[in-house]
Structures are given as C-alpha cells and as structure tokens.
Amino acid sequence: MFSNNKRFLRLLLAVLILPFVVGCATTRLMPRSDDVTIGGVDWKSYADAHALYDSVNVGTTKIDELVGNDGKPLDIATQKNVRTLSRPSLSALFLENGSGNFDSLPDGVKVCLRYNIECSSYLIHQDSSKEVGVGSIALRFLRFKEESIIKGWYVDMLLLVVDGVIVYKHIEGTPNGTERYKSNTNPLGPFGTIPGLKK
Asked: What is d(CA 85, CA 109) in angstroms, rounded to the nearest whole number?
C-alpha cells in the first residue's frame, strides 16, 4: 500500500515537473492572446493597408472601386472597423487640432467642411496585436513572475468622399510594427491571493 502511494507520488511529481524542463512543452503551455477585429477590412499587415492607400487617386478614384485584400470589391460602409465622422468632428480634427487656418487645408478637406456640400468621411482603424507568454513557466505557474511579449501593428486611414469620388486620403500607423515587454512580479507568489496578505 505504502509502495503504491510512493509510485503515485513519483508519477504525479514527474507530470508536474516535465513541462518545466521540456522546451517544446513549455512553449505550448505559455498563454497566448490575439486581438483582431472580426468582420473588418481584411488587412493582414500594414503593407496591405498601404497598398489600398496607394491605389487611390484623389479626385478620380470612386469609393465603390476599392478592392479588398481578397481581390473582391470593398464595401467600406459595411466594415466593422470603420466609423464615419460628422462635419463638426472633421472641423475639430483639421482646424482645432491642426493649424487653425482654413485656407491652408488641402482642397478635399476644404470642400468637405463647406456646409452646402454632401461629404462622407470614413475612418478605417485596424489594430492587430498578439501577446505571447515568455520566461519561466514555473514562476508563472506559481504566480511569482509573469512575462509577456506584445507584438502588433496598427493603421488609421481617412477617406473623404464627395459624389462618390475620394477627394482626400490620409494614412498613419506603424509600418514596422510595435513590440513591448510586459512583466508582473508578485513576491508572495501563490500566497499573494490569500485574503489579508494583499492590500
């Protein structure tokens, strides 16, 4: 009976220790998280977004001529990562937060800020990030230290449309991506969650 208990304890200990000493198992056990907009413009990278931006000829390209990453027509109005801006919002964006001088604005923007013109504005925002656990899985498991690398990229593209034609375009973002290191340390480890030990 005692011998069976010892064998069971050894087996249990081996199962608990194995993931900490086997590299590939450690990788699989590390937490991962992805943050991607579902039903949005299907860009896999910043380069995809810039390809669409480059395809737009201001003053001639029509909004319904845009093509998505899959080669199919891109209906901007139905994408879940697109929002429209009101005329007051555009005014705040270009005048209050910009130079404040109407005459210095691009022609397409000036057209959209005139009250007798019907202008549609589309702000496409895509933020694609991935968080992957790194470091010691033993320290993470025991809650002493949790380390992660967060990688990703984002893009903001503004298109102003008058009578179906794109009259202004602007893009900004992180063409080279971003990478951040995150670390949470808890000196009390698994005991840090016991009531009365943490303030």
From this structure: 12
pTM here is 0.69
Contact criterion met (CB below 8 Å) for 108 and 94: no
Cβ within 8 Å of residue 117, ≥6 positions away: 111, 162
- What confidence tens digit (pLDDT) does each residue in 155-168 have? 999 999 999 999 99
Query: Residue 22: is its pLDDT beyond 70?
Result: no
- Residue of 148, 150, 198, 145 lying closest to 177 (CA atoms): 150
CA distance 116 to 69: 35
Reading the block at residue 145, the tokens are: 């230290």
* pLDDT at position 104: 83
Check residue 57 and give its pLDDT: 95
What is the structure's pLDDT at 170? 95
Determine contact, residues 126/43, Cβ cutoff 8 Å. Answer: yes
